């Protein structure tokens, strides 16, 4: 079914747009999605950034995101080792606006940040690069399958101060006054994705809009107690109707006496104000910007802000905590053991991690360092991706592009004759790809099976 027939019920909401609903529908039906990426600021030095921009075919910056770039065309991302190394993330340009929203807060010290509906991780990794260094970022996803995708993308980004959890947002009700900022990119009717997702067109109905709005109110009710007084909520959807956008702001203001906070956007072109509302809120429409549909607003919880009061303390102990830490265990981080997995977390977050773990189903805490197998420690892919790893403390082998792709395909790769036995870090262009175990006459490829490239590697 064509998009225009789906939008009959939206005309009253959108008729005030310029150049009108016709311009929007024409863009959705007849134009191609823009391809954009965001570079990982911690994994790309100045010279490398320039080289990566050229390799990707970047033609210009995304207006509202320092590290975002619009590409000339869509490259074969699957066969680019840099993507698998977490050097960049393929993300819609509109979604990168959260970077500007966070920067507009002028934060001068680390915060505790929650992305409550986080999969697949685009906005979470944007936040990681936009928050002050040392901040703790918690990313939650309700769907268990999508939570694993989120975990993978967070691991690849390599930031140590993270917790990934899965499950219903109702669990956050007990974490009262915990988070300085909560991002709620809530499940929505997906009208803003209709240009690039046929399913978004086929599944849309007025009933779906009402169903999503009910779920959005429930999510907000669950999250609001976990936000500190004076803290901020970033509310967003990828849809166009007022029911899930401006009317949801009405709900938050009326029920929680919240304040909708303006974000400076005068320097940018194409951003549309909210429709039939006095609230400062921001719409991204594909006939006006180089990106897909997005609605975003910054909301302040009433009350006086107070900094966290949790005291630094040692982590919960385990009968396995007597394990001897290897030389390559990340410096200035605290070991934690969960089952047969050794983790490393920034020491300052010991108390809050204990608090989170008591209420949430956490599937990643900090950096997953190794799997404990008897007296052996098998280094984790998470450690290979982490910016906390000191590569000089472990043997490593640099490989060419074809060998890198074969490694990512999980093939057996050839190693130089002088490669030491044991666990060896494979690097490409100076950055880690993952681990192999060199046995001497052969090597075992330890790249995670679930992450491997499935397509045939082009020679």
Beta-strand content = 25-35%
CA radius of gyration is 23 Å
The gross shape turns out to be globular
How would you describe the oligomerization state of the chains in this entry? single chain
Report the structural category: alpha+beta
Describe the main β-sheet briefly. Answer: 10 strands, mixed
Mean pLDDT value: 92
Distance between the termini: 41 Å
Extended strand count = 22
How much helix is in the residues?
A: 25-40%
Low-confidence stretches: 311-315
Number of helices: 14
Features:
10-stranded mixed β-sheet; 4-stranded antiparallel β-sheet; alpha+beta; globular; 459 residues
Write a short abstract of this structure.
Helices cover 26% and strands 25% of the residues. It is an alpha+beta fold and 459 residues long. Strands 5, 6, 7, 8, 9, 10, 11, 12, 13 and 16 form a 10-stranded mixed beta sheet that branches. The protein has a 4-stranded antiparallel beta sheet with strand order 2-3-1-4.
């Amino acid at each position: 079914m064509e998009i225009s027939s789906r939008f009959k019920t939206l005309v009253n909401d959108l008729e005030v747009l310029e150049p009108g609903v016709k311009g929007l529908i024409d863009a959705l039906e007849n134009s191609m999605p823009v391809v954009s990426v965001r570079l990982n600021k911690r994994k790309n030095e100045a010279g490398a950034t320039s080289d990566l921009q050229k390799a990707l075919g970047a033609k210009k910056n995304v207006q509202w995101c320092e590290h975002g770039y619009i590409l000339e065309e869509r490259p074969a991302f699957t066969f680019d080792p840099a993507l698998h190394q977490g050097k960049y993330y393929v993300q819609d340009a509109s979604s990168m606006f959260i970077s500007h929203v966070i920067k507009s807060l002028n934060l001068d010290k680390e915060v505790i940040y929650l992305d409550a509906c986080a999969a697949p991780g685009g906005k979470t990794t944007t936040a990681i690069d936009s928050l002050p260094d040392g901040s703790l970022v918690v990313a939650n996803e309700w769907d268990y399958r999508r939570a694993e995708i989120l975990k993978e993308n967070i691991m690849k980004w390599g930031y140590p101060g993270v917790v990934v959890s899965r499950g219903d947002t109702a669990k956050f009700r007990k974490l009262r006054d915990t988070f300085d900022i909560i991002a709620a990119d809530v499940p929505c009717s997906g009208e803003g994705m209709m240009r690039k997702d046929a399913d978004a067109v086929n599944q849309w109905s007025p009933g779906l809009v009402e169903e999503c709005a009910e779920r959005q109110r429930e999510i907000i009710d669950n999250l609001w107690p976990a936000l500190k007084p004076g803290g901020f909520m970033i509310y967003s959807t990828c849809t166009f109707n007022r029911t899930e956008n401006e009317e949801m702001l009405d709900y938050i203001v009326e029920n929680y006496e919240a304040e909708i906070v303006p974000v400076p956007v005068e320097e940018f072109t194409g951003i549309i104000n909210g429709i039939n509302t006095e609230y400062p809120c921001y719409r991204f429409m594909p006939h006006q910007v180089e990106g897909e549909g997005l609605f975003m607003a910054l909301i302040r919880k009433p009350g006086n802000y107070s900094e966290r009061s949790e005291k630094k303390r040692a982590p919960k102990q385990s009968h396995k905590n007597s394990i001897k830490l290897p030389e390559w265990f990340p410096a200035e981080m605290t070991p934690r053991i969960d089952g047969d997995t050794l983790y490393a977390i920034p020491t300052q977050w010991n108390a809050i991690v204990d608090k989170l773990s008591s209420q949430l189903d956490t599937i990643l805490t900090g950096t997953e360092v190794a799997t404990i197998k008897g007296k052996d420690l098998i280094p984790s892919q998470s450690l290979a991706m982490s910016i906390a790893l000191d590569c000089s403390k472990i043997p490593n082998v640099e490989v060419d592009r074809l060998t890198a792709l074969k490694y990512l395909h999980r093939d057996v790769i050839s190693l130089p004759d002088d490669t030491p036995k044991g666990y060896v870090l494979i690097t490409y262009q100076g950055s880690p790809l993952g681990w192999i175990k060199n046995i001497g006459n052969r090597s075992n490829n330890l790249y995670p099976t679930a992450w491997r490239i499935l397509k045939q590697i082009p020679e």
